[in-house]
Amino acid sequence: MQMKRKLSRRQFIKWGFGATAAAAIAGGSYAIWGERFNYETKKVELPCKRLPSSLDGLRVAHISDTHLGFFYNLDQLKPVVEKLNALEPDLICFTGDLFDHIVENAKECSALLRTLQAPLGKWACLGNHDYEAKVRAVKSVLTEGGFRVLQNEHERIRAGAGGDFLTIAGLDDSLVGRPNMKATLHNMDSQAFTILLSHESGVADQALEYPIDLVLSGHSHGGQVRIPLVGAVFVPQMGDTYIMGHYMLQRDQSPPLHVYVNRGIGTTHLPIRFLCRPEITLITLRSTL
Fold it and tell me: Of 127, 174, 214, 252, which shows the fewest CB atoms inside 10 Å?
């Protein structure tokens, strides 16, 4: 019969340091190579009082913050495009930061974006990194890729069997652009169901004052790194109140404002994600009439 040996204090400490180092290496490898490409498709249903019954079931795909060029390339974006098309959305919304700091492989990027399919169009707003990468070049890539870039403007879309309209509005970036909510919504049909694209979710409180039904945002990346019982380690300015997921903001007299913050596809500053997977969102709108 073999006797079990007890660990000495020195052996225990040595074992503990070794286990901690191994866990740190494994966790770091997962954060860099594992979770960053482990895309989550988040499916959400939103009951909307002002949504016409003819638009019940409208499917909105939402992505944000690809940050191409910062340890993220077009080959890594291709699975996202495939997943988006597989969802068969009615419209696709992109809420900014296509490139991280410089426009690269513009023609190839536009060609990939053109493969995205949505019968009610592909819509985008600008983010702060789009300005760093030069707005004109970023808008050109998105436009050549079939996206309508909304910069302090809106458009009406005829949708549904009843010929009802919905409005898509896009606000310029709130940190380095020239956002103007009044200009964005000027002459808008206040009775139409309205989706506002804004890179930073911090505009949601301002949006409460307008006939907007849903705000789609990104920017925060969900923090990129989240610690259990703590949450996001760091969130950027204008993304520190509504950090990720769905929020419903109440109004006194009008229906509530829905806000959805996508965790983003890429990363910035550090090429890591931990307990904060990149996100593809499919929002199904439901009429409560």
Answer: 252
For residue 43, what are the domain limits? 38-287
Would you state the pLDDT for residue 177?
Answer: 98
Q: Is the pLDDT of residue 173 over 80?
A: yes
Beta strands 214-217 and 226-227, pairing class = unpaired
CATH code for the domain in which residue 169 is found = 3.60.21
Question: Total structural domains in the chain?
Answer: 1
Rounded-to-integer distance, Cα 243 and Cα 261, Å: 6
pLDDT at 10: 53
Evaluate whether residue 162 is within a structural domain. yes
The dihedral of CA 271, 276, 280, 281: what is its sign?
Answer: negative
Domain assignment present for residue 9? The answer is no
CB-neighbour burial class of residue 244 (10 A; exposed 0-12, middle 13-18, buried 19+): buried
59 found inside a domain: yes
Evaluate if pTM is beyond 0.70: yes
